[in-house]
Design goal:
The complex is a heterodimer.
Chain A lengths: L6 E5 L10 H9 L4 E5 L20 H16 L3 E4 L12 H15 L3 E5 L7 H15 L8 E5 L5 H5 L4 E4 L4 H10 L1 H16 L2 H11 L1 E7 L4
Chain B lengths: L1 E2 L2 H10 L5 E8 L4 H4 L7 E9 L3 E6 L3 E7 L2 E8 L1 E4 L5 E6 L5 E8 L14
Antiparallel strand pairs in B: 1-7, 2-3, 2-9, 4-5, 5-6, 7-8, 8-9
Classes of the chains: A alpha/beta, B mainly beta.
Chain lengths: 226, 124
């Protein structure tokens, strides 16, 4: 993995930084790279309330904020910036206004690498809206100051449209840290972990398969033309 | 939250009659319904802090429950409600959870606006 000066993560929801990316983040922080996380919303409208449910619509943002702080602690992210946007509404905001907020952080921490969803391949409208705003913010910088953009493409047709990922990280050495970061998002992932453990208990081969899937993280470099 | 008690919810609903109250009304099958859960599409609608006034409020059904709020010029309706809570701020929170504990529908009433961002609150 390339040595980075500073990594900036730009995601709209608590848990986006962990799901499919936490291993890479852990590799960076363990290498001594400072990591800043911009989290756009507090996932106020998530439908997972824990299993059994322990959150409700009004307590969920408080709970998810604490979960996010715990995940940051696990991953060694010591700079968390909350934008205070609202879940599911990011695409309805003025993209330039959202980009202003991201640009301010970029100018502050001067990242060499920016990780976000790959524009139009984020599935969730908030993912696509925030990655779009991040690209606008990066475009405002002089070319020589622009961070490289690693995009997570999670659409089913990502590989057909974008080709194979540009970057594949083997995160097996930090798998425990990755799982701990995901588990920090208790309200969101408890049900998923229960399913996963059920799957892994079926056979040693099934366990190996799940671990193999979790051990690879994929990114596509988003290239800005101008 | 706890399983709906019809008497408690009915009493609480009646306390909100004939005054301007803030409504949160929502239904969702999840942002990834189509992507990961094989449904035709993700469906969600919500209103946060609709200012409403109603003259009749009734809970009906039996696990799950329905609530209808009759306004001078219309209706507010929610189906599939399973759980309730009256929180420390006196707000009535009603929700319907599926078998996995995921929220599918929510109807909430408050005399003060529901927060748009909890970051605006002190000490958060």
């Amino acid at each position: 993995m390339n040595k980075e000066r500073h990594v900036l993560l730009v995601y709209p929801h608590p848990d986006d930084e962990s799901f499919g990316k936490a291993g890479s983040v852990a590799l960076y922080t363990q290498a001594g790279t400072p990591v800043t996380l911009i989290c756009g919303t507090l996932g106020e409208l998530g439908r997972n309330m824990g299993k059994p449910t322990f959150a409700n619509r009004e307590t969920l943002p408080y709970i998810r904020k604490k979960e996010l702080e715990e995940a940051c602690r696990v991953l060694g992210i010591d700079d968390l910036r909350l934008l205070g946007l609202r879940d599911k509404t990011v695409e309805f905001e003025d993209p330039e206004w959202v980009a202003d907020k991201i640009e301010a952080v970029i100018r502050d921490v001067k990242p060499s690498l920016l990780m976000t969803y790959y524009p139009k391949h984020g599935v969730h409208p908030d993912h696509d809206a925030l990655s779009h705003a991040a690209v606008i913010a990066v475009k405002r910088l002089p070319k020589e100051e622009r961070p490289v953009i690693y995009g997570s493409a999670v659409t089913h047709d990502a590989r057909a449209v974008l080709g194979p990922p540009d970057v594949t990280y083997d995160v097996s050495s930090v798998l425990d840290t990755k799982l701990a970061a995901m588990r920090a998002h208790k309200s969101q992932f408890e049900a998923m972990f229960a399913q996963m453990e059920e799957q892994m208990a079926k056979s040693p081969e099934a366990r190996q398969q799940v671990e193999a899937n979790m051990s690879k993280e994929y990114f596509w470099i988003y290239r800005i033309d101008d | 939250m706890q399983p709906i008690s019809v008497d408690v919810v009915q009493t609480k609903l009646s306390e909100f009659l004939n005054q301007e109250v803030y409504l949160h009304l929502e239904t969702t099958n999840g942002a990834y319904a189509a992507h990961r859960f094989g449904q035709p599409m993700a469906v969600c609608a919500y209103i946060r802090n609709g200012k409403v006034q109603f003259e009749r409020a009734t809970i009906a059904g039996d696990k799950p429950y329905r609530v209808g709020l009759k306004m001078a010029d219309g209706w507010i309706y929610a189906q599939g409600l399973t759980d309730f809570e009256v929180d420390a701020k006196g707000r009535l929170l009603l929700a319907g959870h599926d078998e996995e504990g995921r929220l599918a529908v929510s109807l909430q009433l408050s005399r003060t606006p529901f927060p748009m961002s909890v970051l605006d609150e002190e000490g958060v």
